[in-house]
Amino acid sequence: MRLSDLAKELEGRLLGDGDLEVHAIKTLDEAKAGDLSFLTNPKYAAAAKDCQATCILVTEAFAAHHAHEMPCAVLALENPYLAFAKVLNLFHPAKKREVAISERAFVHPQAKIGEGVTIMPMAYVGEATIGPGSVIFPFAFIDDDVAVGERCSIGAGSALMPGTVLGDGVVLNPGVILGGEGFGFAPDGSANVKVPQVGGVQIGDGVEMGANACADRGAIKDTVVGQGTKIDNLVQLGHGVHLGKNNVLVAQVGVAGSTVTGDGVVVAGQSGIAGHLKIGDNVRIGAKSAVTGNVRDNQAVTGSPHMPHMDYLRSSNHIKKLDSYAKRLRAAEKQIAALQQQIQEQQNAQSV
Hints:
Radius of gyration: 29 Å
Number of strands: 37
Strand order of the largest sheet: 8-11-14-17-22-25-28-31-34-36-37
Number of helices: 6
CATH superfamily of the largest domain: Hexapeptide repeat proteins
Mean pLDDT: 95
Helix content: 10-25%
Structural class: alpha/beta
Oligomer: single chain
CATH class of the largest domain: Mainly Beta
Number of domains: 3
Low-confidence stretches: none
Largest sheet: 11 strands, mixed
CATH topology of the largest domain: UDP N-Acetylglucosamine Acyltransferase, domain 1
Distance between the termini: 101 Å
């Protein structure tokens, strides 16, 4: 693709020869002549200046200060990372699959299958509704009373249990389980009695869930994942959880039952959120945190138990200095003991 055409496609400002062509996108250290690269993290600025690519995607701010230092053309953009995503789609368009329902798949006679649906071998579709253009990969299990929207992708080995409803454009990677029994038991003194889970699961438009992520069905209320939310591998959503729109949950996050999050919440990896909490809009939760209470809108919290992020950073800094503090404390204790000894000796001398 010619750089002038690429600049028009990405709505960027090209500083360099628009007739040059690029054929692939590579990282800064791998790129050669004919390649396009990208700079989205300032710490790699030095590497960008040594890059052998034909063109590099950069921020407007970087271009304003460093374009004259670059050994190649630069394409200045407001959001190079977003442009990077668009370029990947340009150079690596999604593979078009044959639209077909395999004879080796089981499809219930009463299932409602939309136009252009692909169902691969060994998939199981019960008395469910599958929207137009959706793709169901091998060994996926779609039970009765399930509704799948348009243009969805149901990954290999995924399971959609009764009461599960998917919006349009939902992507489930391999092994996703939706609508499994919520973890609810009532102890009677001698045993843990199972509490029936009669709710469902609702997945909003444009949601993506990583491999082996799970969302249990609600005890009464449905478990809900809001529109545009992105969920990484191995995330667990307990029964009755309600995630807002455009949340991001990174790998190994766990959200306990009946917790509600606002819109735009980001939860970093291996964090846990206790049950029956309210997490406000645009909250940021740091990695390995244990959230044990409600969090107001626009707050950043980290730690176990959670605390304001700046408090966590200060505490972490003090923890690093504990050995030094201990040494200073022991030295101070010795000085205090010596002073006390001197005072005692002076008092004894005066009393003689």
